[in-house]
Amino acid sequence: MAPRPLRLTSRRPPRKLLFILLLILGPICIIGVFTYRQKISYFFRPIWDRPPPPFQHLPHYYAENVSMDYLCRLHGWSLRSEPRRVFDGIIFSNELDMLEIRWKELHPYVTKFVILEANTTFTGIPKPLYFAENRDRYAFAENKIFHGIFPGRIASYGSHEDPFKLEAEHRIAMNGLLRRAGISVGDLLIMSDTDEIPSPHTVKLLQWCDGVPPVLHLELRHYMYSFEFPVDYSSWRATTHIYSQWTQYRHSRQTDVILSDAGWHCSFCFRYLKEFVFKMTAYSHADRVRHRDFLKYSRIQNLICRGDDLFDMLPEEYSFKDLIKKMGSIPRSASAVHIPAYLIENAEKFKFLLPGGCVRSPG
Ligand SMILES: *[C@@H]1O[C@H](CO)[C@@H](O)[C@H](O)[C@H]1NC(C)=O
Ligand SMILES: *[C@@H]1O[C@H](CO)[C@@H](O)[C@H](O)[C@H]1NC(C)=O
Question: Averaged over 124-133, what is the pLDDT?
């Protein structure tokens, strides 16, 4: 055993000094805890919250110009004699640009675009029917659109409408809308938010192959504000279903299998600053908008260009390792490869979603 080094000196600070320090630092710590209470509780989330059970990741194969028959067989499936009909069901808020990109990408494969929009927000504030008012913009898909309006409730002053309950009611209304749109057993149904866009070749694969799992999550590349800020591959809520009489429209964990790298999820990918503000107040997580300053255009613009969090909160992560890795800004990417083709074909129109395009106009 190695001998311990001898401690030659032991100098302690005088007691009086310690006492004074405590007197000064104590109140500062208490004030800090109050100010950052929300942040601190998020930071300790890994202790009190369990991660969702892990997914089984299905390998996903794709290259241009490979035959459908070969692709189906690579996945362990077989080619159908004819493609499944595809129904794309979304609950729409105000993502007008993402809607255009979504429908342009999926148009060749989709039978009916089923879109439900409410005349109030999830937080009970009256809202314009953004889709109905801008329907002309989607004339290219007109013969495939099946639009429904959800009559929302206005929250009375001071009352707290539970946004998650309202969201659940939307999903029930969606079941009825899909049936009225003519969905039937065996069709492929996409359940996702407007900004969760399956890649076209993924939809084509699932509509042309027999043997695909009846319920399948889609792993999407997650972006924030634009395709310039790729976050990770964490987006998993979108699903595809081979429709059966028991299928229920949902946006939560439904099965253990997930198809890898199946598309894009672009959060807060808005053209105008006013759209950011609308989404921040209408969002299910409206409790995150804590101060009026949060909604200032100049603040939002700065955060967008830095890739910082609009809500000034720590990312919601389940392990300290992930949490620490993700604190701070999202690194900027100069790649515009493997993004929706319609964006590249209309690069001028969608400049704000491409590298170098972070500056937004108020709207
Ligand atoms: C694509 O496939 C066709 C027919 O199989 C072939 O003639 C053509 O050369 C292929 N193109 C590319 C770019 O590989
Ligand atoms: C929403 O639509 C329903 C049904 O058309 C209507 O009764 C209600 O007044 C509307 N609410 C708002 C806020 O416009």
Answer: 92
Q: State the distance from the centre of ligand 2 to the C-alpha of 107, rounded, in angstroms.
A: 31
The Cβ of residue 362 has, within 10 Å, a number of other Cβ atoms equal to 10
Kindly write down the DSSP assignment for every residue of 263-289, as one continuous string. Answer: EEEEET--SBHHHHHHHHHHSTTGGG-
Establish whether residue 126 lines the binding site of ligand 2, counting it when its CB lies within 6 angstroms of any ligand atom.
yes
Contacts of 68 (CB under 8 A, 6+ apart): 79, 204, 205, 208, 209
The number of the ligand nearest the C-alpha atom of 129 reads 2
> Quick one: which atom of ligand 2 is closest to the CA of 119?
1
- List the domain boundaries for the chain: 56-267
Q: DSSP 3-state helix, strand, coil percentages of the chain (rounded to 5)?
A: 35, 20, 45
pLDDT reported for residue 12: 55
| Domain 56-267 classification at class level | alpha beta
Q: How confident is the model at residue 6 (pLDDT cuts 50, 70, 90)?
A: very low
Least confident of 14-18, 96-100, 169-173, 213-217: 14-18
Q: Which helix (H) or strand (E) segment is 31 a member of?
A: helix 15-35
**Is the CB of 199 inside a 6 Å radius of any atom of ligand 2?**
no
Closest atom of ligand 2 to 154 CA is: 13
Contacts of 248 (CB under 8 A, 6+ apart): 171, 175
52 ligand 2 Cβ < 6 A: no
- Output DSSP code: residue 239: E
Reported confidence tier of residue 277, pLDDT bands at 50, 70, 90: confident
14 lines ligand 2 (CB under 6 A): no
Mean pLDDT, the chain, whole residue set: 85
